[in-house]
Design a protein that fits this description.
Helix content: 25-40%
Largest sheet: 5 strands, antiparallel
Strand order of the largest sheet: 4-3-2-1-5
Order of helices and strands: HEEEEHHEHEHHEH
Number of helices: 7
Shape: globular
Strand content: 15-25%
Number of strands: 7
Structural class: alpha+beta
Distance between the termini: 13 Å
Number of domains: 2
């Protein structure tokens, strides 16, 4: 994601009248018949939260994105409905959709809201089954992080590969949650286990 887009997201969020673990800015647009809802918050400045919900006909899809790098490969769009995928791909890539997403953020005024009051956000996560890419950091547990999880977090978060490997080498894994009331600061989570947080450069 371009720095100017990231700065706009942060500035829009900072302009909110109040900030809690539950508040967000939201941007909406349509791309090739797919309704796109973009949620952002800077509750944890070291782990900015960027989420996207895509809707086409009866299909709904949620994914987390890395604010610093929205160059998401199709392989990390876990269980995306085929009807949505066909409409957001151009030459088997997502670049065009993400260009539209960035352009919309730069040229629009966001809505503000609370995750707990946003029925689309809570319902999409609730009915998406057992999710792998939940939006918020919750804790760390003593289960070895799988290589699949490590590779997914390397793409969808701004945590450095060396930090992720350090977590894995200690036979631990990071836990995420869909509930903002349960979210924790990523640095505090890692500090509790003596792991230094390094961000991707």
């Amino acid at each position: 994601m371009k720095n100017m887009v990231k700065d706009k997201l942060i500035n829009d969020y900072n302009d909110l009248s109040y900030h809690t673990d539950d508040t967000f800015t939201k941007y909406r647009f349509t791309y090739n018949g797919v309704y796109v809802h973009v949620y952002f918050d800077a509750y944890d400045y070291q782990a900015l939260s960027l989420s996207v919900i895509l809707i086409y006909e009866r299909d709904y899809y949620y994914t987390s994105l890395n604010v610093d790098d929205t160059d998401t490969n199709i392989e990390y769009l876990h269980k995306i409905p085929l009807g949505i995928l066909r409409r957001i791909l151009v030459n088997k890539k997502l670049d065009d959709m993400f260009e539209h997403l960035e352009e919309h953020i730069l040229n629009s005024t966001p809505e503000e809201g609370r995750y707990s009051d946003d029925k689309l956000f809570s319902s999409t996560l609730k009915f998406s089954g057992k999710r792998k890419d939940l939006p918020f950091w919750k804790s760390i547990k003593h289960v070895r992080m799988s290589d699949d999880t490590l590779n997914r977090l390397r793409v969808t978060s701004n945590i450095s590969l060396s930090t992720l490997k350090k977590i894995q080498s200690k036979n631990m894994t990071l836990v995420k949650t869909q509930f903002p009331k349960d979210r924790k600061n990523i640095k505090m989570i890692l500090d509790s286990k003596g792991i230094d947080l390094e961000l991707r450069s």
